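Technical annex B. To support the medicinal chemistry partners, we prepared a structural model of the target in complex with flavin-adenine dinucleotide, based solely on the information shown next.
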Amino acid sequence: MPSSKTRIAILGGGVAGLVIARHTAGKLDTYSVTLFEQTDQVGGTWVYTDETDVDKHGLPIHSSMYKNLRTNLPREIMQIPDFPMKHDEGPSFVHHSVIREYLWDYAKHFNLYPHIKLNTLVKYVEPETLRNGQTIWMVTYQDLESKVETTKAFDTVVLCNGHYSVGHIPHIPGIESFPGGSIHSHQYRVPEVYARKKVCILGASWSGIDIAMEVSQYAEKVYISHNLPEPIDSKISKNVEERPGIQSIQGNIFIFRDGSTAEVDNFIYCTGYKFTYPFMSTKVEIRTEGNHVEPTYKHLIHTDYPSLFIMGLPGIVIPFPMFHLQAQYILSILEGRIKLPSSEEMREEYETEKRALLEQGIPLRHIIKLKERQWAYYDEIAAAANISSFPPVIRKIYDYSNKMRELDFTTYKNYQYRIIDDENFVVCYCKPC
Ligand code: FAD
C-alpha cells in the first residue's frame, strides 16, 4: 500500500537537520521522516575533532570547530526557543562541547534517533516528474560501513548540509612561492603550534579575530590583514598588528596593499566558506557564485521546486532560533497553510529584492548576511507561519553583546546574561574563564 504520509528526506544532522526533524517527527501521522548523516554523530560542526583532513571513511572532515572555541553568542539567545539550555554559573558564551551536549540532549529529548541514519552519505539527489505532474525526489545514499548504496523516493527534500565546511581560498599572486605552512580556518585547531612564529591571518571577521587572539598568546607576531573600510580595534594584544589586504607574496615576504611588507612563517586564511551541494542533480539549477545561493525564495525555498528547501542560508543571524522558525515555515507550506506564489513570481520577487539591495550598495556576496535585516526576516516568516517571532529582549541582548564585542574583543565573552521577561535582561561580569 503506498503511504499517504509525506516522505521527507533531511540531508545532514547538524542543528538545522535536527530542528526540522523535531518538527516533522512530532507529526508522525503526517510525515515519514528520514535524516541522513554522514558522520557517526549528530551535531554537525559542533562535534569537534582533532582531525583536519579526512575521516575514517576518507571523507573530508566536516567540523570547523577549534579546540578552545567558545560561542560568539550568549546562550540565552543562541538556544532553540523550545529547548532552553541549562543555566550553569559562569559566562553565557560557552565552550563548544556544551553545545554538542545540548544538541545530543535535544535529539534524545524529541526522540529523533529512530529517524536518523548515521554513517550514511547522501550521494545523489534527483527530481523526477510523475505522470500526474508531481515532483518526487530520488535520493541515493550509501551506508559507509557496509558500502551498500540504496535509492529511495521522497516527496520533500530539506538540505541541511551546513555552510561552514568548505573554505573559500582567494588566489594571492605569488602564494606558490611561500615556503611556510598555510591553512584555512576550517583546519585550525590549536594555537600552540604557532609558538614563536610570525603569523599572517587574512580576514578580520569573527574567525579571523578570534584566531588572532588565540594565536597571539604564543606567536612572536601576528599580522591581521583585511580589506575592511574601517580599521578594527587592533588592541587585541601588543604583538598583533593590523595591515591592509595582501597584494602579493614573494617567498616568505608578504606585500600588503599599502606597500608595507612583513616576513611570515605561517599563513591562515580566515576568508569564509563556500556553499556546496555536490550531491545535487544538474537538473536542478543551484548557482553558488559570489557567496550566494540562487534561485531561492525567502532564503529557503527553491523557486523551481517548492518541495526543495535549503535551511540556514542567511549569515550574521541567530542560527538556532532561525532554524526553529524556518522549520515551522516549511511545515506551513507542506500542510497548505501557506500558499506559495508561482515559480515565476517567486523568482521575480527575489530578483526585485536583490536589485534593491545592490542599489543600496550592498555587494552580492553580502546580501545573504542579514545583520540588521534579520529581525524583519524572522517577523515575516513567523507571521506567514502564524507563529510568534522572538520577543524584543532577544534583539536587545544581541545588540548589547555586539556592542560589548566592538568595545573590547578580549572581554565580551566574560559576561553572563539573564532574561528577566520579554523586554528586559540583566548582565553581569564574570571572572575570565
Ligand atoms: P552543520 O552543523 O555544518 O551540519 C551539517 C551536517 O550535514 C553535518 O553533520 C554533516 O556531516 C552533514 N552532511 C553534509 N553533507 C552530507 C551528505 N552528503 N550526506 C549526509 N550528511 C551530510 N553559530 C552560533 O549560533 N553561535 C556560535 O557561536 C557559532 N560559532 C561558530 C563557529 C565556527 C567556527 C563555525 C564554523 C560556525 C559557528 N556558528 C555559530 C554557525 C554554525 O555553523 C551554526 O550555528 C550551525 O551549527 C549550523 O548548523 P547546520 O545544521 O546548518 O550545519
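Notes passed to the chemistry partners:
The first helix runs from residue 15 to 25.
The pocket of flavin-adenine dinucleotide is lined by residues 11-17, 36-39, 44-46, 62, 64-65, 69, 71-73, 78, 121-122, 160-162, 164-165, 207, 279, 312, 319-320 (CB under 6 Å).
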